[in-house]
Design goal:
Number of domains: 2
Strand content: 5-15%
CATH architecture of the largest domain: 3-Layer(aba) Sandwich
Number of strands: 8
Shape: globular
CATH topology of the largest domain: Rossmann fold
Largest sheet: 3 strands, parallel
CATH class of the largest domain: Alpha Beta
Strand order of the largest sheet: 3-4-5
Low-confidence stretches: none
Number of helices: 12
Order of helices and strands: HEHEHEHEHEEEHEHHHHHH
Radius of gyration: 21 Å
Oligomer: single chain
C-alpha cells in the first residue's frame, strides 16, 4: 500500500510521510533504503503518535495486542484499518483492544497478494483492478469509511462493502480452503518414498495449484483458527466430495466422474 500510494500520489497532497513499524530493524532499514517508507520506529507508541492513518498488517492472532498497545498513543482523529483475512475475529480483537476508540477502526481486506512476503517482494501495482472489501462497523462514521475507501481507490482497487460474517464465509471458500488444500497436498507428497522424483518432475498444473503453499505459515495458521467455523464447514463438504470421487473411481463409474469434471469446467471457464 505504501508503494501504491507513493505512485498514485506523487504530488504529496495525500501522503506526506510514511512511517514503518516492525520487530526487525534490518527489514525496516530495507524499506527505508528502497524508498517505501520515510522513517521507521521500533517503538509502536512513537510510530503511531501523530499518524492520520494506521494500517495494520500483522497475523490475525496478534491483532488484539497491537490494538491494545496503540490505543493510548492515538491522535484524536486517527483512522485505523487493516488487511486481515478473517474479519469477525479482527473486529472482536478491536472491540477488546481499542475500547472507546473502536469507531476509529474501519476493517478491511484487499483481495490481492502473492505467496511472497517482505518489503523486497512488494510492488505498487498489486491492487490495480483488484477488489478491497471493507466491513464497516455501526460505530464508524461515513467520513472515516469514505477516507479509507478513497485511499484504496488511489491504489487502483475497486472497493466494496459487506458484512463481516459474510466476508468470512466467502473467503473461507475462495481463499482459506484452497490454502489448506495446497499445504496438505505438498505435505502429503513430501512424505512419500519417491517424493524427490515427484517434485523434480512436477508439471505446471502442480506448480500452479500448490504455489500458495509457499505462503507465510504463521499467517495462515492464524487465519484458519480465527475463521475455524466457516473453514470446517467447507472442509467437511470438500471431504465428502473427495469421498464420492474416490467411490466413483473405485467403482469404475466414468459417468459420475464426467459429470463432476464437466460441471466444474463449465463453472471455472466463466471465472475471469
Amino acid at each position: 500500500m505504501a508503494r501504491a500510494l507513493r505512485q498514485g500520489c506523487a504530488d504529496g497532497d495525500v501522503v506526506e510521510k510514511i512511517i514503518g513499524y516492525g520487530r526487525d530493524k534490518v527489514h525496516l532499514q530495507q524499506a527505508l533504503d528502497l524508498g517505501v517508507i520515510d522513517s521507521y520506529e521500533l517503538d509502536i507508541g512513537r510510530a503511531v503518535a501523530n499518524a492520520d492513518l494506521i494500517l495494520l498488517a500483522v497475523p490475525v492472532a496478534a491483532m488484539e495486542d497491537v490494538f491494545t498497545e496503540i490505543r493510548p498513543h492515538l491522535a484524536a482523529d486517527a483512522i485505523i484499518t487493516d488487511v486481515g483475512s478473517a474479519k469477525v475475529a479482527v473486529i472482536e480483537a478491536a472491540r477488546h483492544g481499542l475500547g472507546e476508540r473502536l469507531s476509529s477502526f474501519i476493517p478491511g481486506h484487499p483481495i490481492a497478494g502473492t505467496e511472497q512476503s517482505g518489503v523486497v517482494a512488494s510492488f505498487a501495482e498489486l491492487f490495480e483492478n483488484r477488489r478491497v472489501i471493507l466491513t464497516p462497523l455501526p460505530e464508524n462514521t461515513a467520513a472515516t469509511v469514505n477516507r479509507v475507501r478513497e485511499l484504496w481507490t488511489l491504489c487502483g482497487a475497486e472497493v466494496v462493502e459487506m458484512a463481516a460474517a459474510h466476508h468470512d464465509e466467502v473467503l473461507a471458500a475462495t481463499s482459506h480452503l484452497p490454502h489448506l488444500l495446497a499445504y496438505s497436498l505438498v505435505d502429503l507428497l513430501a512424505g512419500l518414498d519417491d517424493s524427490e522424483d515427484i517434485f523434480t518432475y512436477a508439471a505446471g498444473g502442480f506448480r500452479d495449484f500448490t504455489r500458495i503453499a509457499s505462503s507465510d505459515p504463521v499467517m495462515w495458521r492464524d487465519i484458519c483458527l480465527a475463521n475455524r467455523e466457516a473453514v470446517l464447514v467447507l472442509l467437511d463438504q470438500f471431504s465428502k466430495g473427495i469421498d464420492k470421487l474416490g467411490d466413483a473411481i473405485r467403482d469404475g463409474n466414468g459417468e459420475q466422474l464426467m459429470e463432476v469434471f464437466s460441471r466444474a469446467k463449465e463453472v471455472r471457464d466463466r471465472i475471469k
